[in-house]
Structures are given as C-alpha cells and as structure tokens.
C-alpha cells in the first residue's frame, strides 16, 4: 500500500526502498493520491503501467489519464527545471485510475481508509484517515502544509491558481475536529493532532495573505512582490535557525 505516488523522478528510489523490505512495485495493492500536483502524483502513470491501481479525487482522474494540461501549467511555473524536479510524467491507463469521493471508504485487506475533502491548497485535495482499531491517523498531503526537516518551521505551499484562503481555513477546522491522533504530512514528517501545528498554520496563512494584500495596495510589480515575500520567509526561517541553503532546498 502506497500513500502518494511522488514525482516521476523518484521511481528508482521507490523501487530500491521497497526492495529493502523484500517487495516490488508490482506487489503494491494500490496507491492513494491526495492531489494531482507533480510532487504527489507525477509517478502515477509509471505505477499504473506496472499494475498499481491509482485512487484519486474525482476531479483529478482526467489529469492523470491525460496530464498535458497539468504539465503545461507546471511548466509555466518551473520552466527549464521541470525535468530536474519532476522527471518524465506519463499518462496513466484510464482503467487503472479510480475516482474517490468525499467520505468514501477504501478497504485493502485489513487496511480501512476514509477520504475526506480538504480544499484550500487545491480544490481536488483529499486527506486519508486510516483506522488502526483503537485509534486512527491522518495522511494529510498538503492540507496541513509542510515542515522543513527536523524543525517546526511551517512552509505553506500556495501554488497558483487554486489557493483559497477561506477554503483552507475550513479545511483546518475539519482537520482540527478529526478523531485521529496524528497528522502524517507528505512533506516533513508527522505531528500530534493535539499540537499547536494547525493553529500556527492558520495564523501563518492569515498573516501571509495580509502581507500580499498590503504590498499589492502599494502598486508594486509582481517581481518586487515576489522578492519581498521571499525575503520575509527567509527572515522567519533564519529566526528558526534555518540556513539559507536549507530554505532554498525545501521552500523556494
């Protein structure tokens, strides 16, 4: 069972990691994808070609079967770095991609998951709750943002054009009221559900949107706005004793 396909360039690492546990990609029962951004779903086509069923939000199915629009949108953001960052994203066979609805249960042997609609970062986003019997955990994709490794610095992925502050705040409320004991972030590890992570995320979202609003009202151009935003984040990272190289590696 795999949570997130990851980018296409990670296929070799995935294969070797599974081999360390005596497994092959072809033995995976399924892959649950929280949303279709390339760092989460770029390898879906490769997995599907090797017999792994892909389960993804109903709005994301067509973009995995035909990733041309997804790749075009990503290329506008990442340009020449596309291949270095993500590798070769290929179409997934339609029969191998299964739509998932809000509240839907997905059962694989003894594992019972429940998909929960969580927009804000992307409108086609689910988190997956895994029932462990006496407790449950939540695989949160990007709905609970990211943590830089070995820090409590929250990095908020806000890709255009789908970022929606109000929807994300409603998602945070939904995550906060879940019955799970831990949130497993796709990027940066896991946190106790009872920790202050979600409250800090909500505060960061509100503050950063206010930065952008205030700078935009000054009439500055997009390049200057981007420069100010980046510098503000770097200063916050430095305050958490994160060096610029680490920041650039994970949050640029």
Helix content: 25-40%
What is the CATH superfamily label of the largest domain? Ribonuclease Z/Hydroxyacylglutathione hydrolase-like
Note the main sheet: 6 strands, mixed
Task: Tell the overall outline.
Answer: globular
The CATH topology assignment of the largest domain is Metallo-beta-lactamase, Chain A
Mean pLDDT: 95
- What's the gyration radius in Å? 18 Å
Please, how many helices? Answer: 10
Order of strands in the sheet with most strands: 5-6-7-8-11-12
Through-space gap between termini: 31 Å
Q: What sequence of helices (H) and strands (E) makes up the elements? A: EHEHHEHHHEEEEEEEHEEHHH
- Residue share in β-strands: 15-25%
Corresponding CATH architecture of the largest domain:
4-Layer Sandwich
Number of domains: 2
List low-pLDDT spans: none
Please give the number of β-strands.
Answer: 12
Broad structural category: alpha/beta
Given this structure, which CATH class of the largest domain is correct?
Answer: Alpha Beta
Description:
With 252 residues, the protein is α/β, with parallel strands linked by helices. The protein has ten helices and twelve strands. Helices cover 39% and strands 19% of the residues.
List the defining traits of the structure above.
Metallo-beta-lactamase, Chain A; 4-stranded parallel β-sheet; 252 residues; alpha/beta; 6-stranded mixed β-sheet; globular; 10 helices
What's this, in brief?
By secondary structure, this protein is an alpha/beta fold. The protein contains ten helices and twelve strands.
